[in-house]
Write a structure and sequence with these properties.
alpha+beta; Multidrug-efflux Transporter Regulator, Chain: A, Domain 2; 3 helices; 3 strands; 3-stranded antiparallel sheet
Length: 65
């Protein structure tokens, strides 16, 4: 089973603030699930890797414009 990270762990993985991760979750930029009555987010490591890979592609596309 894949490891689930909380918002703080995901923020550390990505090198951003937890509030940024929460915003990205609400905007569906990162895929996550809500637990505990919808108050706590959990994000899989693969979702973070996918997000980073997509961000790198988008950054590369913008550089070539």
């Amino acid at each position: 089973m894949e490891k689930l990270l909380n918002v703080e762990q995901a923020a550390e993985y990505l090198g951003v603030q937890p509030s940024t991760v929460r915003n990205w979750l609400r905007e569906s930029k990162i895929t996550g699930v809500k637990l505990g009555g919808g108050k706590q987010w959990r994000i899989t490591e693969s979702a973070l890797r996918d997000f980073v890979a997509a961000s790198q592609v988008n950054a590369h596309d913008k550089e070539s414009e």
